[in-house]
Amino acid sequence: HRGDRHNHDREPNYRREATTETTATYTSKDKVRLKREQVGFFDPTHKDPHDRGMIHTSSTVVYTDVLCFKDRLLSFLDNEDTAVECEEQILSMMNTILVGSALSWWNNEISPSTRMELRKKGLRATLDVIEKRWRMNSAVATEKFVKGTVTLRDIAADDSYLTDYVSRMIRYAKVIGIYRDGGDTWRGVMHTIWGSTDINIKKYLRQPLESDTLESYTMEIEMARATLSTYAAQRYPSVPNQRMETEPPLRQDKRRGW
User: Fold this and answer.
1) Strand order of the sheet with strand 41-42?
2) Long-range contacts (CB closer than 8 Å, 24 or more residues apart) made by 212-221
3) Are 93 and 18 in contact (CB under 8 A)?
4) Is the Cα torsion angle 119, 121, 124, 126 positive or negative in sign?
5) Angle, CA 192 vertex, CA 188 and CA 195 arms, to 5°
6) What is the pTM of this model?
7) Which of 52, 108, 113, 238 is the most exposed, fewest CB within 10 Å of its CB?
8) How many angstroms separate the CA atoms of 223 and 35, rounded?
9) CA dihedral defined by 106, 43, 70, 62, rounded to 10 degrees?
């Protein structure tokens, strides 16, 4: 029937489906409960013209970069009181937070026995396998890192462009292998990033000092971002701010994976 066909072809409403689940809470009496929209979705082929690694939709965040997705999921393990419960829930929803080609790969190229084995090994082991498959090619990352640049006009068009740019360059550096969490590898990477900015930006953002920590220099970037945003708007008043336009809800593949 025409009505049946219409219902079959209709795309699922992610916002409606996701919000039927309980909001994540935790008390001494209650267990934590996660929503898929709160965790986010991984779709490596989702449109991401500025290579931010994540796209905000009307109801959630779609991660297009596997390192961003991995960091997001592992952040739920930071709280020791809720880590075990969060890990189990995320593993159980893996087949619904992987989208598009990632879900197709998960269902068709990873055997059911392997998926079950990964679930037993835990979230980190599962994410390591996902990262290995979807990690950016090192040659591509090297080219992007070397050619990266940011101008005052970029900031006029997007007042968060500088911080997004730094995050993007760090992702490339991680893929290349010149940036590792912990230690001082961040300093050389930040020197390169600072050097890739134009002279107008360097007036307001100093290069990293030996006395800096990653945290203190990150704060320095954030403080410079606010100043540069004002300066850029004055310098380029006719450039419209195009910061992250909200996109429609993403499509969901209904197939199950575990």
Assistant:
1) 41-42, 61-63, 54-56
2) 212/187, 214/186, 217/186, 217/190, 221/162, 221/163, 221/166
3) no
4) negative
5) 135
6) 0.75
7) 238
8) 33
9) -140
Res. 128: pLDDT tops 50: yes
Cβ count within 10 A of residue 110: 17
Q: What is the pLDDT of residues 140-177, one digit of tens each?
A: 999 999 999 999 999 999 988 999 999 999 999 999 99
According to the model, what pLDDT value does residue 242 have? 65
CA 190 to CA 173: how far, in whole Å? Answer: 10
Structure token pair of residue 25:
């809470």
**Locus of tokens 């930071």:** 78
Residue 65 identity = D
Query: Over the chain, what HEC string results?
Result: CHHHHHHHHCCCCHHHHHCCCCCCCCCCCCCCCCCHHHHCEECCCCCCCCCCCEEEECCCEEECCHHHHHHHHHHCCCCCCCHHHHHHHHHHCHHHHECCHHHHHHHHCCCHHHHHHHHHHCHHHHHHHHHHHHCCCHHHHHHHHHHCCECHHHHHHCCCHHHHHHHHHHHHHHHHCCCCCCCCHHHHHHHHHHHCECHHHHCCCCCCCCCCCHHHHHHHHHHHHHHHHHHHHHHCCCCCCCCCCCECCCCCCCCCCC
Site of tokens 């939709």 = 57
Q: How much is the pLDDT for 57? A: 82
What is the chain's length?
A: 258
Burial 204-216 (b: 16+ CB within 10 A, else e): bbeebeeebebee
Query: Cα–Cα distance between 52 and 89 in angstroms, integer?
Result: 27
Residue 27: C-alpha distances to residues 80, 97, 187 (Å): 13, 26, 40
